[in-house]
Amino acid sequence: MKSLKHKLLGFSVPFLAGVCAFLIVLVVFIVIGEIVFGGWSTLSWEFLSTGPKEGMTEGGIYPAIIGTFLLVVIMSVAGVPVGTVTAIYLSEYASHRSYLARAIRFAVNTLAGVPAIVFGLFGLGFFIQFVGTGMDTFLSGGTDLKWGQPNILWASLTMALLTLPVVIVSVEEAIKAVPRELREASLALGATKWETIRKVVLPNSVTGILTGGILAVSRGAGEVAPILFTGAAYFLPHLPGGLTDQFMELGYHVYIMSTQSPDVEATRGIQYATTLVLLVLTFTLNFSAIFLRYKIRTRTIR
Amino acid sequence: MQDSKVPTTKQATPSQTKSESIARSVASGHGVNNDNSGNLWWKKRFRPGEFLIEKSIAAIAFLSFAFITLIFIFVFREALPIFSSTPQKTTVEGTQSVQETYGDESSTSEMQKQVDERKKSVDNSEEGTATAANLIGGTWQPVSAKPKYGMLPIVVGSLKVTVVSLIFGAPIAILAALFTAAFAPKWSKEILKPAIEVLAGIPSVVIGFFALVALATFLQKTFGFEYRLNAFVGGIALSLAVIPIIYTITEDSLSRVPKVMTEASLALGASKWQTALFVVLPAASPGIFAGVLLGIGRAFGETMIVLMATGNASMLSANLFEPVRTMSATIGAEMGEVVFGDTHYTVLFFIGTILFLFTFCLNAIAEIFIRQRLMKRFEGL
After folding, report:
1. For residue B45, is it within any domain?
2. CA-CA distance, B23 to B29, in Å (whole number)?
3. Distance from CA of A110 to the nearest CA of B (A)
4. Banded pLDDT at A90 (limits 50, 70, 90)
5. Residue at which a domain ends, from B50, B81, B112
6. Which of chain B's termini has less CB crowding within 10 Å, N or C?
7. Would you tell me how many other CB atoms lie within 10 Å of the CB of residue B358?
8. In Å, how far is B292's CA from the nearest CA of chain A?
9. What is the structure's pLDDT at B138?
10. Residue B57 and residue B162 in one domain
11. Beta carbons of B172 and A223 less than 8 Å apart
12. Contact B210 A35 (CB under 8 A)
């Protein structure tokens, strides 16, 4: 009697676990398949290189691609150096027991867990209403509204903050992978700590910094919630020309086209194709990051 | 500080053997010897450049802490007027529109009763302002002549969607992690792990779009829902975002279970599945719990998926198959149209503060569970 129950459970427990695992793989294929098949037919060179036409019902997504590109570039310029320096501090200078290092670690963990929409609120409350309005008052006496409104700079900075933990974690991992002997050899030759970091540690962790940057870009390109009210625009006739301009963005375009556009059904093709472009973009970035990380790991073993 | 590796021998008191001091220097690692170099600083040559660089690196590193503080301060600051605002008389009181009956005379008296009732509620509790008492109300109607900021429907909406996503996401993720840790042949691991990474890498707006155009239609056709977009659809879509988190943390803590434990269990005659179910799973339970907590945090704070897939109507009901509006989606949908400094604006920031504090607490508890419970349990094994 016991053996029957035993056999039954012995079969069903691994089976059930296997089914769940299979289900996840299946879902991944379904989601990607749906987007690829839905968007394939609309995708063309023209779609990628022209702007929306006929009141957004036709045409392409060129401004959204450029907007996304500018967003992640400004974001990386602001975020990657800060993340790298923080990682250097945490792994090279800070003692594990110091309060500052603990506070920073705590802050990085917390930043990674804050919901994206809260970053959006912060961008609105801090960058636009506080810094932007402050700059307006300072520069022009508050007569003309230039900085105190949503624009690509504030959106990028908000996004840089969101992606900061991603950069820090992967740069720190890369710095830790630099062999200790290299540092000690450099110090023994009389180099100071900073010289060692600059000439030995950093050159050896360039791939890690690159990985961090790529992962951050991938994350930043995919998040929409932080830019909902810090700079993304529904439609703009021209590309952003300066830091105070609003911009179109791929993820925001998907959201707005599929929920708020006048004729949702008529633009399904555009929606699918935009989603496909976004998906291809993030996957390309993620896979190159995985590849780089793999290279770092194999190098440490050698 | 850079000579921290060298002085360990210099510093070693005669009583210490050489091996002891080496062991100490190895154990403390690089850059950890602040406490040792503390009494050596006067022996070290002072280099102003190095000092400046170290301080400026520390200052930049401090930025992340500064910003987390700023996030809290600024989100909370914009929400602050709620607590200080004195209830003002609403101006809409007298302008209560006369309800048109469109010829249906029989219902007039009933209508009149409703109007009276509404008037009474206006007289009694100034629902136009957002005092703490009004925030608990059951109607979320921020854009109307008489705005109502009752947060109950959207809080319940968030809870409904989160619960659905966990009911589906958590068991699947935990069982799949158990599969990889205990049963999976090697080839299936090499499919499952990248699949999870891919799933984690899909932007939430893409999942939202998938739920909006494909999943919602499919589920409606299969189960015949009255509404195409509802809390159930949103919850299922959200579970796609939750599964990678729970899976990763569960798998991590399952693989941390010491081999001695599984081997002991197997040696006592337990079978593979018995070991997995009654030894490995319970041993890793703090980690699994932490994973579920982080999953809840993610589900609660996720915006784009619920914004696109739940239908966004703030109805207060227990029915899972009706459209809902969650807290995060409310911010996402309404913040674009509010006037700066308005009561509505303030209330949205208040919701943001709640989201922030809630996820913050969940993360802190999860951290404690992983670090204290799980690690302590396996200490010495």
Report:
1. yes
2. 10
3. 7
4. very high
5. B81
6. C
7. 17
8. 14
9. 72
10. no
11. no
12. yes
- β-pairing, B140-141 vs A52-53, is unpaired
Residue B323: inside a domain: yes
State whether A21 and B179 contact (CB < 8 Å). yes
Q: B34 vs chain A: nearest CA distance in angstroms?
A: 6
> B219 and B306 in one domain?
yes
In this predicted structure, the answer to whether residue B86 has a pLDDT above a threshold of 80 is no
How far is the C-alpha of B216 from the C-alpha of B225, rounded, in Å?
9
pLDDT digits over B7-26, tens only?
444 444 444 444 444 444 44
Residue-level pLDDT at B375 = 74
What integer is the mean pLDDT of A140-145? 73
Q: Look up the CATH number of the domain holding residue B228.
A: 1.10.3720.10
Question: Which tokens is B25 given?
Answer: 């220097």
Closest B-chain CA to A130: B74
The string of pLDDT tens digits covering residues A78-88 is 999 999 999 99
Would the pLDDT of B27 be above 60?
no
- Domains of chain A are 62-301 (1.10.3720.10)
- B164 assigned to some structural domain: yes
Q: Which phi and psi (to 5°) does residue A190 adopt?
A: 100, 5
Domain count, chain B: 2
Interface test with B, best of A28, A162, A180, A267 (most B CBs within 10 A): A28
Same domain, B187 and B293: yes
Task: Answer yes or no: is pLDDT of A301 > 50.
Answer: no
* Separation of alpha carbons B245 and B247, rounded Å: 5
CA dihedral A32, A33, A38, A39 (to 10 degrees): 50
Domain limits for position B31: 2-81
For testing contact with chain B, the best of A24, A102, A197, A217 (most B CBs within 10 A): A24
Which of A84, A89, A111, A118 is the best mutation test for B, with the most CBs of B within 10 A? A118
What six digits make up the tokens of B24? 């100490």
Chain B residue closest in CA terms to A252? B205
Angle in degrees, 0-180, between the axes of helices A250-259 and A268-301, rounded to the nearest 10: 150
